Amino acid sequence: MNHVVLLGDSIFDNVAYVAGGQPVSKQLPHYLPQNWQVTLLAADGSRMQEIPSQLAQLPHDATHLIVSVGGNNVLLAFGILTETANSVAEVLDKFHDITTIFQQQYHETVKLILQHKLPVILCTIYYPCYFDPNIQRRAVTALAIFN
User: DSSP string spanning the chain?
Assistant: First the structure.
């Protein structure tokens, strides 16, 4: 039997966000072949730093990993979207500094995941949804840099 394990954040641990609907962990089995098992280890609010503890809980019979992580790490840099700058160069330099740290953390996280020698699907960071159209436009643009 194949066994898919969901790692990461609220993209998979989304029960709190689907009011009356089915969370991803309940929907996924309907799209997989019969007899495939799905285990949810992802946890709402998780950042890349929590992936090692999720991997420590990996079932011994896991055959596939699906990972969505990084969005909560990016949220830590949200303040940059409301800062002022004197030039485009200054903005790009700030994004460079933030994304360099993010890339290093993401690379280390992926290395840990790959140590399990299982097929892995890595998801991009989720599309933001802000009510303020200015923040939404900035968030979508900034997200492209991280993804």
Answer: --EEEEEESTTTS-GGGSTTS--HHHHGGGTSPTT-EEEE---TT--GGGHHHHHHT--TT--EEEEE--HHHHHTTGGGGG---S-HHHHHHHHHHHHHHHHHHHHHHHHHHHTT---EEEPPPPPP--SSHHHHHHHHHHHHHH-
Per-residue confidence in pLDDT tens, the chain, 147 aa: 999 999 999 999 999 999 989 999 999 999 999 999 999 999 999 999 999 999 999 999 999 999 999 999 999 988 888 889 999 999 999 999 999 999 999 999 999 999 999 999 999 998 888 899 999 999 999 999 998
Q: Can you give the pTM of this predicted structure?
A: 0.91
Strand arrangement, sheet containing 37-40: 37-40, 3-8, 64-68, 120-122
